[in-house]
Records
---
Amino acid sequence: MKNSNRRRVVVKFNLICFFIAIVIIGLIISFFKNYIFATNQEEEEEKEPVIAFEENQKSVDVINVMLENTDSNKKLVNEEREVQYQTEYEDNPNLPKGEEQTKQEGKVGKVQITALQDYQNNEMIHEEIIESKTLEEEVTKIIYVGTSEFLSKYSVHIDDQMYLLEAEDLKEEAKDEANTICKIPRYLNVTIKEAGEEWIKVAYNGKEGYLKTTHITSEAVTPIIKEKNRIATLKNNLNIDTDLSVPSGLTLSDYKTVLSNNINDRNKIFEQNAEAFYNAEQKYKINGIFVAAIGIHESAWGTSKIAEDKNNLFGYMAYDRDPYNSASTFENYGEAIDTVAEALSIKYLHTAGTKIEDGLIATGVYYNGTTAKAVNTRYASDQGWADKIFNYMQYLYNRL
């Protein structure tokens, strides 16, 4: 037994020595190898041939190759797909309640995807997205939803016209004690800018401010208000500085209304020639009520001798030295109205060269401006003539 143990020890010792020798030899070889490689590196680099690899333009789709060579029910797809946009809703107090308006249009996006699909009986039952790359971002659609009961009640929108049933103060702020910007007359219109329930923001004659909603309406709620507004606007725009080279805007029906049933028109001259005054306005680009007012003033409503004998309502061409004999005579009142309207237009109310109608050009020989006072400068020696004419114009407008 002792000899056997001794032999085992000797064998183990020999094996250990063998492995130590191998390690030492390996280290020596490694040292000399590194030395040789270090000293000859440049030569080897010069001698080593350069091998160029051409990029494989048709790379192998490993997954597809594997799938095609098996009995798998899976399919790999690589395709471009659309991404549907989302829709969001926002409350808007400046839209009628329940009404919708698109704030931002939506846009479908695009992605490039790689997906692994499972099929059963030729029907896809599952899909796993392996890779997804955005090509175009989708854009969310945004829709306003109206919340204004006021706008809904009057069937109006922002920037629509509304009308005052009574005269109202335009305020700087939405409160009673706020400063007044101006007073808006009855029946005139405003443009709504912001909705509210007790106050609304409006624009009027280039000014913006706030009005109470107590005495305001719309055409949808009060259809007759449109006509009342038209007449109120005509009256409101008349003043001593009104531009008389611009037609009045009155209709033929309006002319018949203002020139009929006047107690002072005893011979019905102005009533019967309402259409002649209207036609003169259209033909000569002139305010026809201004022409009628001159006729009323100069002829005392058609009762002067010149008016009765010569159909001359205007004292046209009558000179102070001999008014009756120097005054022009006309075939009828319509001819007198046409002649005087033309003279006022081409000589007094339009500058030289202004085209009045085909073949008729203004000379502007007596032009001093387009108001009654400007015409007064060269038309009449009475310095109060313009005020008297304006008073008659006001009288006629107020009969609308």
---
Amino acid sequence: MTQLSAQALADLAPIVMIPARMASTRLPDKPLADILGKPMIVRVWERAMAAGVGPVVVACAEAEIKAAVEAAGGTAVLTDPNHPSGSDRIFEALNTVDPEGRHRAVINVQGDLPTIDPALIRAALKPLIDADADIGTLVAEIAREEERTNPNVVKAVTAFDPADADPWPAARALYFSRATVPANAGPLYHHIGLYAYTRDALEKFVAWPPGILEAREKLEQLRALEHGLSLWAVRVDTVPLGVDTLDDLERAREILAAERH
């Protein structure tokens, strides 16, 4: 597990926010999809709790999600169902649960990652601590040839130091694209859409209008780069399973069933 000092965590006082809404074209009512007897959103909440970095709050658009989380003993906040993005949703919920601004770091964990390794949630905080970054995120090296040219696999352009012996090294993210970048020989990195923001960076981010490159690539994180925020990526070993289809849901059930044995 990524090591974060107790003092660093105390200084940042992180909070984990999980945005969730029922609308999904490929998998309707996705947050409530059953995974071995529990709704998917509860499985994600459990993983976030296991990361042990701070309180976990589900920022939800519908009362059904709130009820499911609270029935499991979790905390959930109803938010405006018309928010354009998860970032806007978690910012509203953050101000509801922490109007005094005690939490200086906010981790945005997508609500469709029921098998995510809790250590990855911790890893996203590393750039905020080690590099004084505004935003931390995750990448994994692309191993499958077909993913190098797949526009649905977002590539992060970042230069990791080959001499860095850290098992999960971090480097500044220079760009994100659906294209195959950078050019020529060398590794390509699959971006994992999990973010750790300083509270100040999140507040700025949601206040800015969508950027030009953001609109062109359909990638929200480019807004941060267009405005000059420092965004660093931590290289991890695997891409967590995102549940978007029935096949993904079945795979998540298989993974969690295997963990029981």
